[in-house]
Amino acid sequence: MRYFEDIEVGSTEEFGEYHVTKAEITEFAEQYDPQPFHTDEDAASESAFGELVASGWHTAAMSMRLLVDNYLGDQAGMGGRSADELRWERPVTPGETLSLRLEVVDKHCSESDPQRGYVDNYIEVVNQDDEVVLSYIVTGMIERRKSDE
Amino acid sequence: MRYFEDIEVGSTEEFGEYHVTKAEITEFAEQYDPQPFHTDEDAASESAFGELVASGWHTAAMSMRLLVDNYLGDQAGMGGRSADELRWERPVTPGETLSLRLEVVDKHCSESDPQRGYVDNYIEVVNQDDEVVLSYIVTGMIERRKSDE
């Protein structure tokens, strides 16, 4: 298990492969973001996007799945606290394959809880053409190593 | 249909009622954020949260549904561009009822596209006890009124 002390500021990772399907785009959108350019191919073709595109929050959710499967699994994570400078740089369309780049940009101890630390990660979600579709800074909470570990 | 010109900076809205269920929390988490404190009640009881909590991205997605159902339906929206200062202030647990407060904090024209404007909305998602569980500023793209409309 990796704790706060094991996280190195400046370290980078690149991982994952998330295949985006039309069915998943419309399913997410029907539940959480039922705007026509996310749920209906014909309506989308007449929108500013010109084609069906994933909800921006869906792309964020997909990035979370990439993080859990490839990076957070062996961390003593305590959940997320905040996200900043989130930019939906490009639409995500059916048939794309997404992967994730991560850089640890900062970490700091909690002032109120000696067992807790915070890690700031800069995230870029990129498509199969290496174009950034989404970027953000996420601050996660993580356990500090107990003195006997 | 409401266009960029119809949006008034400083205006506020408060709306919606989203009932959060255990089934929906675990379903979202199994697909997008399979960390034990989001997917498994027993594991969650031994986590820092002490109980099952919704994925932070799930709460963001629920807030989007509240916006689409109650606010964006009659806007000439062109999708979201960015989100800033997103704060998961409190965990969201099964049985809670969420609603949304919105304030239009700024708007500005696009320099590259005369048909497009940007609107910055400050969003607070509150639970049944009027506690803020999530807040963020989201910048949405919206059509400008054509001169003959």
From TrEMBL, chains A, B:
Source organism (scientific name): Natrinema altunense (strain JCM 12890 / CGMCC 1.3731 / AJ2)
UniProt name for this protein: MaoC domain protein dehydratase
PANTHER family per record: BETA-METHYLMALYL-COA DEHYDRATASE, MONOAMINE OXIDASE-RELATED
Matching InterPro entries: HotDog_dom_sf, MaoC-like_dom, MCH/BMMD
UniProt cross-references to CDD domains, sorted A to Z: YdeM (cd03454)
Signal peptide: none
Span of domain MaoC-like: 16-108
